[in-house]
Amino acid sequence: MIEFMLNGKQVSADVADDKPLLWVLREDFQLTGTKFGCGMAQCGACTVHFNGQATRSCVLPAAAVKGASVTTIEGVMDTRAGQALRQAWIAHQVPQCGYCQSGQMMTATGMLAGADGPMSREQVLEGMAGNLCRCGTYNQIADAVVSVAQKPAA
Amino acid sequence: METNKFTRRAFIAGSGAAAVGVVLGGWSAARGLSGLLPEAAAATASFSPVAWVALSPDNTAVVYSPASEMGQGTMTAIPLILAEEMELDWSSVRVEQAPADPRRFGNPGFGGAMVTGSSRTVKGYYEALRLAGLQARLVLAQAAAGKWGVPAAEIRAERSTLIHAPSGRRMTYGQLVEEARAPQSLPKVDKSMLKPMSAFTLIGKELPRVDVPDKSGGGARFGIDVRLPGMLWAAVLHTPVQGEQPLEVKDAAALAVPGVRKVIRLPGGVGVVADSFVTARKARELLEVKWSEQAKARSYDSEAALAEFAARAERLDEAGAVWHKHGDAAARIAGAARVFRATYTTDHVAHVTMEPMNCTARAQGDAIEIWVPSQSPSGVIGTVAAGAGYKPENIKVHITLLGGGYGRRAEADYSLHAALLAKAMPGVPIQVIWTREDDFLRARPRPMTAQHLVAGVDAQGRIVGWRHRLVSESIMARTAAAAYEKSGGRDSPVMEGADGVYGIADQLIEHGREQRGVDVSFWRAVGAGYTKFSMESLIDEIATASGKDPLQYRLDLTAGEPRAQAVLREAAAMAGWGQKRQAGRELGLAFSDAWNTFIAMVAEVSLSEGRPVVHRIWAAVDCGHAISPANIRAQVEGAALFGLSAALGERLVYKGGQVQQHNLDTYTLLRANQAPAVQVTVMPTDHAPGGMGEVGLPPVAPAVANAVARLSGKRLRSLPFPQIT
Fold first, then answer.
1. Which fold has domain B314-348+446-719?
2. ipTM of the complex
3. In this structure, which topology does domain B2-212 adopt according to CATH?
4. Which residues of A touch B672 (CB under 8 A)?
């Protein structure tokens, strides 16, 4: 049994200590926005915020989550920052197949939260290098993130 | 007038096997399309509509899109084409994925079978959908004419509204369908009645894709996100070498893991079903399996094989299966002033769709229901029917969103696993997921190829004879054996792109088939991905060696092809071709005419430690009628980056039939910080649309290689690119 904060709510799950957080989210909480891609922290599709840090959930055992705070794409979408990013994603028509985009947006929100001003295309692309996109939407992701970073914080 | 045999609420517009079902009112979200199908079923016996549109009294329209959405924008493009001639108000159109029923949703470009791939979706449906849309609009105009007592010819339609200008009367489609009945006969339509390009109101406009909002925030549901009551998960222990089977399975340890429900033998593997995927994955490691050791693939060593392929490609006296022959290439080459020869090799590459292969199935009695992200519902039905023993009519397939396809999901191997697992546990829905390691293990890679090209050139530097010999495994021989045999070994996906519009009179293009036991398959752009690499590299080499500008040389080769020349000139202008670059950078140019679309691409490249760094890419593309320019730009850019990824670092190696790369740590994909800026100009012309989803790929590798040659004087002749020393 593990207890942790999930998208702002205290939750518990009766799962094995070594079950990766990714599968706890997808199977035990039906939160399917977080994706399985490689299972070895190479692709970034499973990115969540773990105590505020963008983290690969596919290699994070449930035991490590005890008492921690986890935010998924579903939780981020309930925030103004998440909605701003979503609107930018739509405005720039970022997704193609769309499968990696949850992870992209989780890394992007983490990066934007730590940014203290406008970001360049190159800075964004460097910051997004841990998230693979097979459809090749990197430039659209950069455009979307740059557009959000340029807006003064509301 | 054609006879209409339909029910009062539904009729089929268009003709023959390329038609659209139109439902007049009575539609409700709760009932859905399946509720309507029986109503129309009797009448559809002799027709096969490719799409359905349901018009509601509230003047909204639901269009059921027939093709699999894998990011290429087809879910938007197909309904848009229909809406153009039908004059539907796009803002009140809702698009839904069509239920997979090849009897009612088939692509004419595939002879009615439902497959999304080979850049054929828009090409296959385009004219049929436009004619059907036109006919549907005329039916509505006729109905309004009857109601108003005016000639139908005086009625025009715009934005889902019928207008009779002389009397000032207007009526929405929604108002009309509330009482309208399907007509006894349909107005005749033909191509000459279709709108000219200049009259389009939807085609060619910058409209957003319908699937983007759901995909921007985690809401989109892919195959792997399917959740059914009581669903269990399955992992599969695959044979290390393709073609082997489990002979003995010791499963006591696996079955002892809490949560494991069943262990089931499968073709080429052993499945473990559990109440969690993690449990199934863990338990499969406890299986002890004795595999057969007789597969042909066991002797396959791809590095050694590639050298053999190359040697064979260079054997000019060996006859191959003729892909294209005109004149007497050998004689012209023998009499040429100068001869250029080069051998190119390309390794296997894997698809690596970001969503791993998966399929969910539930069996009940002699029927089975399947939820699957597939490019080919027809393939799923055929595979499951043959491999799991269900009658095709008892297999119901739901196509979900696809987390990438690129050709891998034209194969249905994973769906057979789901079907067999479900069959073994009747009534229980089971989702099988192949891990990333499984995806590599059971890759259906692009064929590994060796190509030998010989060009004879006259004193003025003009090509007078051209030979192109390509040695590889066949795709068609496996996927369409009868057609392959009948054609004398013509393998379209393997050889595509090898012939083209260049004005070279005497040509001989041949394929030499190899059979080494590992299945190869469709991979985005398939043949054109390597044929254009070799051709455009050699063309560039000849131009340079003949003291000619590579752009002008291609313009001379396309003298009778204004569309080709236009994209070449435009891409060159975008890139500033001929202008001096900053120190250490050069431009490279390439061209492709595959899938009836013309594209020219320029890459700006520097070298770092003997490897190309691509800074910018410019492309100009003419695909005829450009359905959705924004999406075309995205597709060209995406395909270019997909091709660049492969050219820079993707390589799948087999030793003893076993794949040597198992995950993304050893199989490297292009990352964000390696992505060049890409600029694409869409140049529509008044021609039927060519393919779009793949065209950005073929020119990228040769454009980069040609830039490298200018930088270093060295020609890159293999994919992925070797390090320059």
1. Aldehyde Oxidoreductase; domain 4 (3.30.365)
2. 0.97
3. Aldehyde Oxidoreductase; domain 4 (3.30.365)
4. 124-126, 128-129, 131, 133, 138, 141-142
